[in-house]
Amino acid sequence: MGKKQYVVIGLGRFGRAVCETLYENGAEVLAVDIRQDRVNDAVSYSTHAVCTDASEEGVLRDLGIGNFDVAVVATGNQIKASSMIALLLKEMGVGTVIARANDEIHGRMLKKLGADKVVYPERDMGRRVGHNLHQHHIMDFIEVSPDYALSEIRPLEKWVGKNLGQLAMRAHYGINVLAIKTGDSVNGAPDAHTVVGSDDVLLILGSADALRNLEK
């Protein structure tokens, strides 16, 4: 099988970050924006870069958009344009359409028009920053669904020196420990005998409520 082909439409901060990350990881990426200056920059972080109006059906057909596996619609500030683009992409057979939304109403509109996944960069980053500021033991916080989050946390003082069997994280806290990082080494399959050290970093999966309740 060949590489997956991606198209990123809209090269503002969010779209550029997505495009750069895909390209740096070896993916084939078509970058599209209506602004020539952004397209000129995108030459360095995409497989191909095109300056055009992606809300035009004929333009998308000329790009062969139906051959792409994943499309990212990053024109969130242009609600009408992003909605039209999402609709056209699905009609043309793009496998997965991920669209950036400004707010919940915009997000619901995109979902109804066929977007497979809707992301809210500003909202989600705000939540991550809020969690990190409010709970000092949480180093990073990423929502994986409306109900669950993946977090990197420092161990609570009362955990240090005890093994995971003694701590019974799932029973006592409603969280699962997926991995433990100690210095430069990572234990990707910690078991009941794994002892938690004071300098460890734990990768955990749990509900937002469980994370909030860790220190109670």
Could you please describe the fold and organization of this structure?
- It is built from 9 helices and 11 strands.
- It has 216 residues and is of the alpha/beta class.
- It folds into 2 domains: 5-119, Rossmann fold; 124-212, Regulator of K+ conductance, C-terminal domain (Alpha-Beta Plaits, 2-Layer Sandwich).
- The strands form 2 sheets. It has a 6-stranded parallel sheet with strand order 3-2-1-4-5-6, with helices on both faces.
Mean pLDDT: 84
Strand order in space, largest sheet: 3-2-1-4-5-6
Q: What is the percent of helical residues?
A: 25-40%
End-to-end CA span: 50 Å
* CATH class type of the largest domain: Alpha Beta
Number of structural units classed as domains: 2
Q: Which architecture of the largest domain would the CATH scheme give at its second level?
A: 3-Layer(aba) Sandwich
CATH superfamily of the largest domain: NAD(P)-binding Rossmann-like Domain
> What's the total count of β strands?
11
Oligomer: single chain
Name some characteristics of this structure:
five-stranded antiparallel β-sheet; 2 domains; 216 residues; Alpha-Beta Plaits; six-stranded parallel β-sheet; alpha/beta; Rossmann fold; 11 strands; 35% helix
